[in-house]
Amino acid sequence: MSTSSKSSSSTPDVVNTNNQTIPQLNDLPSLITINTVVQLPIKLAPHNFPSWRAQFTSLLTCHRLTGYIDGTMPCPPAIIPSEKDATISMSNPAFEHWVQQDQLLLHGIIASASEAVIPFFASCSSSKAAWTKINSMYANKSRSRMMQLREKLLQPKGSRSVQEYFQQIRHTTDELALVNSPVHEDELVIHILNGIGIEFREITAGIRARESAIGFEELLDKMLDYDSFLKCQDSTNIATHTTNAAFRKYPHD
User: Fold this and answer.
1) H or E stretch including 91?
2) 202 conformational bin, left if phi > 0, alpha if psi -120 to 50, beta if neither
3) What distance in Å separates the CA atoms of residue 166 and residue 223, rounded to the nearest whole number?
4) Fewer CB within 10 Å of terminal CB in the chain, N or C?
5) Where are the domains of the chain?
6) Please, what sign has the CA dihedral across residues 167, 172, 177, 178?
7) Residues in CB range of 183: below 8 A, 6 or more apart
8) Are 85 and 144 in contact (CB under 8 A)?
9) What are the transmembrane regions (predicted)?
10) 3-class secondary structure, 16
11) Residue 107 has pLDDT above 80, yes or no
12) Left, alpha or beta for 216 (phi > 0: left; psi -120 to 50: alpha)?
């Protein structure tokens, strides 16, 4: 993110006039803009909401801007009493600053979305409205969505590669976490061992017999190594079979 030329203070200085705390224009925090190309490389699409949300929320947390999207940093009043005369109203600099920052965040959200998603933001006038819209679309907490994801978690590996199978498992567990149905790591391992396929029965038996728990990344490494072993073994068997067949065909050559 980049900032404007205003003061870089994260908390605005205020003056107290007739018990009113009024931020001073020159002391307001610098406006934060988002460089979506550099800071948000993942474009929001229907299939990658968990990853997109993780990168966006970490960026907002870093700059203390999450209050704009979760409602904990509400918009200040547009009109406040004058510093010189409380009976006279004046424009609130903090309101103007808040609106500017909020619109910069809204622009960041829209600019980091794919073309298929952008139309859904047409009615959003604030970053909070856009954030709520995204979550209502992709973090649906309905029971039917949770059941659908749980069933997806049970799908066997089939013809997919080990890497693809594990990626799909991880993506599904991320989506389950979004609908408040997180999968414990031990449960995740059991799903993988049950769905990886009969050709992996030797290594899965060894993992089941372990006294210590195994994590997702370690399990992936072991399965990739064993998959390479199986492929190497298959290549050796094919070569041996070809040699034996040739020998039987031409025994005296």
Assistant:
1) strand 89-91
2) alpha
3) 10
4) C
5) 2-138, 143-249
6) positive
7) 153, 173, 176, 177, 191
8) no
9) none
10) strand
11) yes
12) alpha
